[in-house]
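Structure tokens please, single chain.
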Amino acid sequence: MLTVDALETAYGDSQVLFGVSLAVRPGEVATLLGRNGMGKTTTVRSIMGILRPRAGEIRFEGRPIHGLPSYLVAQAGLGLVPEGRQVFPNLTVRENLVATASNRLGNPDPWTVDKVFALFPLLAARHRALAGSLSGGEQQMLAIGRALMTNPRLLILDEATEGLAPLVRVEIWHCIERLKASGQSILLVDKNVRALTRVADRHYILEKGRIVWTGTSAELAASEDIQHRYLGV
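Here you go.
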């Protein structure tokens, strides 16, 4: 579904990514792991067209998307839950969801406001509240719901549970498990290795802008050396 090949991205003269390659198959949950500052968010921004790669190729369902502006990448079927949530603070919960609603690719069972509220009952209870008044966990739920309302073929979550209370993290992981069970393809950035190995199929580890390890959940869970060397756990 998504193929990233030999990706190089820089901020001005400062190069961050050095030949990053990864893939996400249909219906798969893949992760991008690594310590802070290793290039995970830069990779996500490059895929989404927020940053223009210096070299390499990004293909989505066989179509090259590197170099496209971000709105065309989104229209192609990629949905992003960005780091920091970035909800519209002066719109209500319902307005945030309606603002992004679309079904350009003709999903026969599209996401609706009611379906998002069924996934996150807390949002239903606060549907008239301004997004800026929500807790961090509620904002993350809203950010996920807002991305789902675009009916993406691939959902990307950057720092899915960072800074959230433990109970909220559990709710987010349950949500991701339900999305996977429904066949949603997902690329996840997070630091919770135990939760990630429970839900994900494949993992890619970044170190200083390079992929240094890739493998299955079973392989990652069994390799304490890899976890200690690259993830600091």
